[in-house]
Protein: Pyridoxal phosphate-dependent decarboxylase family protein
Amino acid sequence: MTDDDALARLREMQTADLPVHGGRTLAYVYDSGLPDVDRIGREAVAAYAGSNGLDPTAFPSLLQMENDLVGYTADLLDAPADAVGTVTSGGTESCLLAVQGARDSRPDVERPRMVVASTVHAAFLKAAHYFGVEAVVVPVGPDFRADAAAMLAAVDEDPDRTVLVVVSAPSYAHGVIDPVTEVAPAAAARGIRCHVDACIGGWVLPFAARIGRDVPPWTFAVDGVTSISVDTHKYAYAPKGTSVLMHRSPAHRRPQYFAHADWPGYTMLNSTIQSTKSGGPLAGAWAVVQSLGDAGYERLTREVFEAVDRIVAGVAAIPELTLVAVPDSTLVAFVTDDTCDAFTICDEMATREWYVQPQMSYAGQPPNVHLSVSAATLAHVDEFLAALAESVAAAVAVGPVGVDPGVAAFIETLDPATLSDDDFDGLLAASGLVGGGEGLALPDRMAEVNAMLDLASPAMREALLVAFLDRLARPNR
Structure:
């Protein structure tokens, strides 16, 4: 290919992707709606794409930008004067490092454990898996917030092995803030770290408080909070992918570092899981934050919460829908009555060029529709609500999606631990996730597939989707 051919091919391939601008994709992307913000971020990423964050002495501009970004974040989070932080590649890396740092802060503990609510982000379960930390998962209360008493009781079952307690601001699935003021001081009294996962809310909630919205306390102003994760590629509207992991003090951050000199090469020194890392995302985040500043973020926060409030009111006006919880932040989830289903509504919204996220049933709660609202959505809220009303009406007209009883009974008998690759291939084909001999062949409508997956146990669902991903990720030759 020529240079122009390659770029043309990129643009052609990208037409199959979800739109990242226009406020119509309410999952995966966060859109300010400001073209200049997007331009500034992209230009900064391009300018620093070849810079290497491995060695800050070789690229001092990256160190300057990281310290600037961490300082700005520290002010947002009511951090003490000696608080420190690190820019990571995204929320998952920040969560992984919070767990790894807590584990390594207690080298005396042979089998470390951490206590989390059942609504904690899956990144913490990934960290538990990677780092050999036992995750004690505690059910939440009826309001979907962490049950502070139950979490602390779980801590007290084995306090000597407990190295971390995690709460969310807000939880992803339901958009509510956990009772940080009840959990963090009690953890501190037991000598245990408390991490606040504010990956999705950490940049927007401080500005929400500034513009007068009621926000429960969750920052370093709460005694006992030892670390907080905040994603700048979410509501700081920076390019993918950056996050900031803040620590109350240098002593809290130090176990996060990795150094190794006992080999014939250079002494490896890492502040994050990555060693070599492009300076592009950091430069993009720095440029966007510098450009927007407090005034810009206050404006975007007013816009995103106006959109949230109007969507919440619009959902309440549709008889077939019910909010899962009144959102504390920018995440909205709602369920349906028995005249329709969430999966069909998601399909119907997609036909109207609105992209929303289905969430599976869990712990007796039915499937729901999940929205991550961005500032760019505000200009299109009336269109969104009209599309939602039409989608609900269409879903009611066809009735709730069903799964053949025989197939449902078969799924319930399956044990993912005993299934072969051939069994998985047959199940993937039966579920509509792949086509015979065609590789990936997703149907245009996913309601039936999602309904089938929803019937499977979490372990079976994981196994099927891992098999699906494995079939997707094969070389083009």
Q: What stands out?
A: The CA atoms of residues 159 and 190 lie 8 Å apart. The mean pLDDT is 94. The two ends are 16 Å apart (CA to CA).
